[in-house]
């Protein structure tokens, strides 16, 4: 599916010269454009960096970290807005810092993503220097020319780069940051899974020596495996999640490692215990694809006598999807919103 906002930005990407940055997040997965060697991609998604590198682009995987770019050192920034407001505000604020006077920020998005408000705010910051266009009634782009310094107060990015304590319970304090899935709370489904973890682990014939947290976010599930005494591998493809999870492991003395991977593809090992709260969707890809990919990853990484513990919304047909991959599929509990599913005996 082609993203109309990306269609609007494409000529900017094709024609960029000098030092140019393409700020890309999950919305851009599977959107293609011919390689422009003047452009470096900065993305917080490992899978997107891989996809673009394979297509010939130069990419930097980071949590939209622009510290390597000196003030007024960049000619063009091209950005299709992200879902989360603090991320968008962070990118616009950084653009005014790193763009050369006269350098451009091209920013596009859809009306229901708040693009018109973002353009208004950016226009104010860039001292009114904006050329606006639209593809259809929903898809807008602004090309802003940097006046060299912000003309008004920077946008509220909720201190984007900063990790901070966001939640705690009787076991741990959890730190996270904007840009991480559900960053400022404990996910209700994950809390439900942990409250019933014993129901899962009693099915193991021996205490697990290792465990895998598939799509770890800031590490809630992984940390709550620690009392089992196993070494934990936590993996995600989001740069901010990996930073937060590493910090939490360090601060709370968790015996574990944090690994960057797309759906655990880069991990070889198999585990006796896998925990997973899979994502609903990614960019424009549909929920079913992601559920299937995470189920396949669980099958690939589960020991033959191990168990995988999934939590999903009640409406997700995980049991049906898991049928071709596991011989044992059991709904362990259901609280009216989420269900907990045990998978074992991978095919
Ligand atoms: C529903 S969240 C669960 C987060 C965390 N485990 C928790 O319980 O709070 C799903 C996680 O999957 C991650 N994710 C999405 N797509 C991924 C992919 N292709 N590879 C690895 N992780 C991915 C997201 O970044 C997010 O952290």
Automatic annotation (TrEMBL):
Domain of life per record: Bacteria
Keyword Transferase attached: yes
SUPFAM superfamilies per UniProt: S-adenosyl-L-methionine-dependent methyltransferases
The record places domain Methyltransferase small N-terminal at 26-127
InterPro entries recorded for this chain? Answer: DNA_methylase_N6_adenine_CS, Mtase_sm_N, RsmC/RlmG, SAM-dependent_MTases_sf, Small_mtfrase_dom
Residues in Methyltransferase small domain copies: 175-341
One example of the protein's molecular function in GO is: nucleic acid binding
- The coiled-coil regions, if any, are none
This protein's record includes keyword Transport? no
Q: Keywords of this protein's UniProt record, alphabetized?
A: Cytoplasm, Methyltransferase, rRNA processing, S-adenosyl-L-methionine, Transferase
The entry's protein name is: Class I SAM-dependent methyltransferase
